[in-house]
Write a structure and sequence with these properties.
Belongs to the short-chain dehydrogenases/reductases (SDR) family. This protein is of the alpha/beta class. Helix content is 47%, strand content 15%. It has a single domain, classed as Rossmann fold (3-Layer(aba) Sandwich), CATH 3.40.50.720. It contains eight helices and seven strands; from the N terminus they run βαβαβαβαβαβαααβ. Helix 1 packs across helix 8 (212-223) and helix 3 (63-76) runs parallel beside helix 4.
């Protein structure tokens, strides 16, 4: 049974990916920021899958916490085959109104966590000459948006980081890819007003937003042997966001 770590696994896209991999006989190691909040869903998964699923509380933006997590995982399991860095936060503000603390937190959770998780688990993949790393980025990492300077900058860093990682680790048989969703029907998105949610749906070429399960399907494909030739890519799963030049309809 292959082992996968999924960060931000207690809700939204992370939870959908957890369920997708469990349903396909993977052993899933859930990394969550707040174990108490995720306890109910974890118990439900344990009732269905038993010791096929495990959960750890870890702040993936904190170096000491990730090092402790890696020590626990490497002691418990013989190897980690795939890491999906899904944990992330959204920060919206004009740049001059953004606090230093908000900027630093966005960079820590959305970028530094990828660095820390890779640093912790890629050596084992290198030793085995096999592995997959997937980072959940955003269409906001490919283009600019109004009132999202920190988020655009953080996701933009991930856009190029995946290429560098793919170049460096390909010789070890490790594939590295990003998934770039647009608006997705997660609890975070549902926190928007009905007007905002309708605007996102109407602006999509498909006239809807993505479901978390659809992002999970892309992740599962990228890890599979069917995607064996794919590395260093920013794979869009955005309902068509990012394909328009911005020019008016004629």
């Amino acid at each position: 049974m292959s082992n996968i770590i999924i960060t931000g696994a207690g809700t939204g896209m992370g939870l959908s990916m957890t369920k997708k991999f469990l349903a396909n006989d993977w052993h899933v190691i859930m990394a969550v920021r707040n174990a108490a909040k995720a306890e109910k869903v974890y118990q439900e998964l344990q009732d269905q899958y038993g010791d096929q699923v495990a959960m750890y509380q870890v702040d993936v933006s904190n170096g000491q916490a990730v090092a402790k997590f890696a020590e626990q995982v490497n002691t418990q399991y013989n190897q980690v085959d795939t890491v999906i860095s899904n944990a992330g936060i959204f920060t919206g503000s004009l740049l001059h109104e953004l606090s230093k603390e908000a900027w630093d937190k966005t960079m820590a959770v959305d970028v530094k966590s990828i660095f820390l998780m890779t640093k912790a688990f890629v050596p084992g993949m290198m030793a085995r000459h096999a592995g997959n790393i997937i980072n959940i980025s955003s269409v906001a990492g490919l283009l600019g948006d109004y009132n999202m300077p920190a988020y655009n900058a953080a996701k933009g860093a991930g856009t190029n980081l995946v290429r560098s990682m793919a170049l460096d680790y390909g010789q070890y048989g490790i594939r590295v890819n990003n998934i770039n969703p647009g608006a997705t029907n997660t609890p975070m998105f549902q926190g928007n007003s009905e007007e905002v949610k309708a605007a996102y749906r109407n602006d999509s070429p498909l006239k809807r937003i993505a479901e978390p399960e659809e992002i999970a399907n892309v992740a599962y494909f990228l890890v599979s042997d069917q995607a064996s030739a794919i590395t260093g890519q920013n794979v869009g799963a955005s309902m068509g966001y990012g394909i328009w030049t911005g020019q008016p309809k004629q």
